[in-house]
């Protein structure tokens, strides 16, 4: 492990050496001209969870997991992204993004809560949790591309791995109680359209924005999704830089499947600080 860490540090130090940086000069931010770009980021997210899990034919109410179970409305997320530009003019690209979050909470219920056909009575000490993992794949084409600007559009897939649970003591009759955990989950890729705009006003600086969107009724899913970001990057060395951006992810989905019948309304938004790579 120590040898591996030393090897990685050696690469970073070699990249940061002024002589190496000057060996390959560039007029504008290198992410516009290099074939590969990547970022490893930390996101401080403000969250909102309103979820519903029903028994078929007996719809319940949306549950605010923050108000009902004191599930945290702030999270620290890993946010990783990778993009490959290819073709003789580098106008075609494939991009990937991944982030995930798990938030939990526990509270004494102020009122009855029904989740997945189970009623948790007021006064119950109940716990709850929400987990979402998003994998984004995107295939795009640049329509305006030069050494200073890159604007393009394309199509992609968002794979949503979503689950939520409620657990606690339930009353089976007037005298008998017992522990019960009710959980609902769903995993499904959803198509989307999107676009991006990158502009380098000076050699080491890049302004960037991206948006992905879908609103459709597809099989057992009905709803919409927004996944957007905007920010600024600074190239500290030839292959390594830093980025500060704002990400907004909003999901509103009605589900009618074997694993989940209900709905989800979820929002993640907040700043992302990242180390960027271009080569």
Task: Give a concise summary.
The chain has helices spanning 2-16, 18-23, 65-69; strands spanning 36-53, 63-64, 74-86, 92-108, 113-115, 118-120, 125-145, 149-171, 177-202, 205-218, 221-234, 240-256, 261-278. The protein is 9% helix and 68% strand.
* Count of domain modules: 1
Low-confidence stretches: 1-23
Strand order of the largest sheet: 1-3-4-7-8-9-10-11-12-13
Q: Helicity range of the residues?
A: under 10%
How many DSSP H or I helices? 3
Write the element-wise H/E pattern from the N-terminal end onward. Answer: HHEEHEEEEEEEEEEE
Number of strands: 13
Report how far the terminal alpha carbons are from each other: 25 Å
Mean pLDDT: 86
Name of the CATH first level: Mainly Beta
Please identify the structural class as seen in this structure: mainly beta
User: Quick one: overall form?
Assistant: elongated
Largest sheet properties: 10 strands, antiparallel, barrel
Strand content: over 45%
Going by CATH, what is the homologous superfamily?
A: OMPT-like
Q: Within the CATH hierarchy, at the fold level, what is the topology?
A: Lipocalin
Summarize the structure in words.
Residues 1-23 have low confidence and may be disordered. It is elongated, with a radius of gyration of 23 Å. The protein has helices spanning 2-16, 18-23, 65-69; strands spanning 36-53, 63-64, 74-86, 92-108, 113-115, 118-120, 125-145, 149-171, 177-202, 205-218, 221-234, 240-256, 261-278. The strands form 2 sheets. A 10-stranded antiparallel barrel has the order 1-3-4-7-8-9-10-11-12-13. It has a two-stranded antiparallel ribbon with strand order 5-6. It is mainly β and 279 residues long. It has a single domain, classed as OMPT-like (Lipocalin), CATH 2.40.128.
């Amino acid at each position: 492990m120590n040898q591996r860490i030393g090897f990685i540090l050696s690469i970073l130090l070699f990249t940061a050496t002024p002589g190496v940086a000057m060996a390959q000069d560039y007029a504008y931010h290198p992410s516009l001209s290099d074939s590969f770009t990547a970022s490893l980021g930390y996101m401080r997210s403000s969250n909102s969870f309103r979820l519903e899990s029903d028994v078929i034919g007996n719809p319940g109410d949306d549950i605010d997991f923050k108000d009902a179970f004191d599930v945290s409305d702030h999270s620290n997320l890993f946010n990783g992204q990778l993009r490959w530009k290819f073709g003789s003019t580098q106008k075609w690209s494939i991009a990937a993004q991944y982030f995930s979050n798990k938030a939990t909470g526990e509270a004494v219920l102020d009122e009855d809560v029904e989740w997945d056909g189970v009623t948790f009575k007021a006064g119950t000490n109940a716990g709850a949790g929400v987990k979402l993992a998003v994998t984004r794949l995107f295939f795009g084409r640049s329509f305006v591309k030069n050494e200073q600007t890159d604007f393009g559009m394309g199509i992609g897939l968002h794979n949503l791995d979503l689950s939520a649970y409620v657990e606690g003591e339930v009353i089976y009759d007037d005298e008998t109680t017992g522990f019960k955990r009710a959980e609902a989950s769903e995993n499904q890729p959803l198509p989307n359209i999107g676009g991006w705009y990158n502009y380098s006003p000076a050699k080491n600086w890049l302004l960037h924005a991206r948006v992905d969107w879908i609103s459709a009724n597809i099989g057992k899913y009905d709803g919409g999704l927004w996944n957007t970001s905007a920010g600024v990057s600074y190239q500290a060395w030839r292959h390594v830089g830093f980025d500060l951006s704002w990400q907004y992810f909003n999901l509103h989905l009605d589900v009618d499947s074997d694993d989940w019948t209900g709905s989800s309304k979820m929002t993640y938004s907040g700043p992302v600080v990242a180390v960027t790579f271009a080569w």
